[in-house]
Task: inverse folding
């Protein structure tokens, strides 16, 4: 089954490789290569990878990122939008950190999202998590308010601030904050 998922992901990432970062982010993100480091707080999986080099999104890295950011409830894997990766890279550049992004939630399957939404009115039914366009994170050594403010300053999508749960939501949907 894992081989079938990887084959499916390879096909999906072939079309995603043509995505381009928003012009506002282009000044902040790397010119020759872009890398990210993740640590899933629920599975313990870690990944440090170059996901883009010399103008091309790297399919192997995209598959690895999708694996680490899979739905922890049912292990469903979904491609992560390259624009979200670029936004996260720009965020780490802005914060001048190479620390791993501590992932609370990456991809969330529609089934998991529906179950969560029925229990928690803070979970939206049409969450960008279900499209690989959102992530909930914190970064070691970075104050949550500083992470939130840096993400908002990039104007690359939505930014949600959850101090009681100790994370910031970042997505590459429309620009907004809460």
Result:
């Amino acid at each position: 089954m894992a081989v079938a998922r990887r084959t499916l992901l390879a096909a999906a990432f072939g079309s995603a490789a043509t995505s381009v970062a928003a012009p506002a982010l282009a000044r902040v993100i790397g010119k020759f290569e872009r890398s990210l480091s993740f640590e899933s707080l629920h599975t313990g999986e870690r990944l440090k990878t170059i996901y883009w080099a010399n103008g091309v999104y790297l399919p192997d890295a995209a598959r690895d990122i999708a694996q680490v950011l899979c739905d922890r409830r049912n292990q469903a894997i979904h491609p992560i939008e390259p624009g979200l990766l670029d936004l996260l890279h720009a965020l780490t550049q802005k914060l001048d950190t190479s620390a791993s992004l501590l992932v609370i939630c990456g991809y969330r399957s529609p089934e998991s999202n529906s179950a969560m939404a029925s229990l928690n009115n803070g979970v939206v039914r049409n969450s960008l998590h279900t499209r690989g366009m959102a992530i909930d994170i914190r970064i070691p050594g970075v104050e949550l308010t500083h992470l939130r403010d840096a993400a908002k300053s990039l104007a690359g999508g939505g930014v949600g601030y959850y101090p009681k749960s100790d994370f910031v939501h970042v997505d590459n949907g429309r620009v907004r904050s809460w």
Q: What stands out?
A: Residues 2-177 form a domain with the Muramoyl-pentapeptide Carboxypeptidase; domain 2 fold (CATH 3.30.1380). The helical segments are 2-16, 23-26, 59-68, 82-95, 110-119, 144-154. The chain has six helices and eight strands.
